[in-house]
Specification:
Strand order of the largest sheet: 3-4-8-6-9-2-1-10
Number of domains: 2
Distance between the termini: 36 Å
Largest sheet: 8 strands, antiparallel
Helix content: 25-40%
CATH superfamily of the largest domain: Cyclophilin-like
Shape: globular
Order of helices and strands: HEEHEEEEEEHHHHEHE
Radius of gyration: 22 Å
Number of strands: 10
CATH class of the largest domain: Mainly Beta
Strand content: 15-25%
CATH architecture of the largest domain: Beta Barrel
CATH topology of the largest domain: Cyclophilin
Structural class: alpha+beta
Length: about 270
């Protein structure tokens, strides 16, 4: 009887130690350990796209193909499933993008943040996210002085983004002037674009990192220079130690781990 009771107690203890998933939570079972993330309702398109791909098994067997210590770990390249050792990865997609849902400062790049990868502003003025690739922030701790520099960088990125948007609006005019070899007209157009960029930036106002977010970056850490530029759509709620472990693996010149770190399966909570 005691053996039976001991067996039941062990089973109860086992289930008590296993964290049950709830709504909007998914578990990554990886070769380095398990990571549980919670998806945000503030970013419904990213949430729903991620859950759809996870349920379809699109992330199963994929590699963490880009790992940068004190920054982030990235995965989601469908080409990584059967990639050979040393093969360049990071360009694989599923043929679509997800519209940006940047919710800064509500969602930001603190340690453990889950965010969507994307192409740069110069070719992606609307900041649309990759349909499949994402990263988890490991980051580092910042000082106030360093965060002041980050603010300047964030504002420069915002100005650049505005510039690219306005330049695209005038792309047909620029092409016509180039074909007509109208250098005077091109110079005038460049001046117009710069002036409109400045006006738009002045209207939006310079970004400031809120005090409460500064405290997080000064104590817990993260990658603040990505804020307001990439869509954060969730965060790690269990398994940050696994993120740390993956971030420390040895990598090649392209930041691909020398020894594969693979997502074995993604489990989604189902009611």
């Amino acid at each position: 009887m005691k053996k039976i009771l001991f067996g039941l107690a062990a089973v109860v203890l086992l289930f008590a130690c296993q964290r049950k998933l709830k709504n909007n939570q998914v578990k990554f079972i990886t070769t380095a350990g398990n990571i549980i993330v919670e998806l945000s309702d503030e970013t419904p398109q990213h949430r729903d796209n991620f859950l759809k791909l996870a349920r379809e098994g699109k992330y199963d067997s994929l590699l963490f193909h880009r790992v940068i210590e004190n920054f982030m770990i990235q995965t989601g390249d469908p080409n990584s499933k059967e990639a050979q050792a040393g093969e360049e990865l990071g360009r694989g997609e599923l043929g679509y993008t997800t519209p940006e849902e940047i919710q800064y400062p509500k969602l930001y790049h603190k340690k453990g943040a889950l965010a969507a990868a994307r192409k740069g502003d110069n070719v992606n003025v609307k900041k649309a996210s990759s349909g499949t690739q994402f990263y988890i922030v490991q980051g580092e701790i910042y000082t106030d002085k360093e965060l002041d520099q980050v603010e300047k960088q964030m504002n420069k990125m915002m100005v650049d983004g505005i510039f690219y948007q306005i330049r695209e609006e005038y792309s047909d005019s620029a092409t016509a002037l180039q074909l007509a070899k109208d250098e005077t007209g091109l110079l005038a157009l460049q001046t117009t674009i710069k002036e409109k960029t400045f006006e738009a930036f002045q209207k939006q106002g310079a970004l400031k990192i809120p005090i409460e977010i500064r405290e997080v970056y000064k104590t817990i850490g993260g990658s603040p220079f990505l804020d307001n530029s990439y869509t954060v759509f969730g965060e790690v709620i269990d398994g940050l130690d696994v993120v740390e472990k993956i971030s420390l693996v040895k990598v090649d010149d392209r930041k691909r781990p020398l020894e594969d770190v693979r997502i074995l399966k993604v489990e989604v909570f189902e009611q």
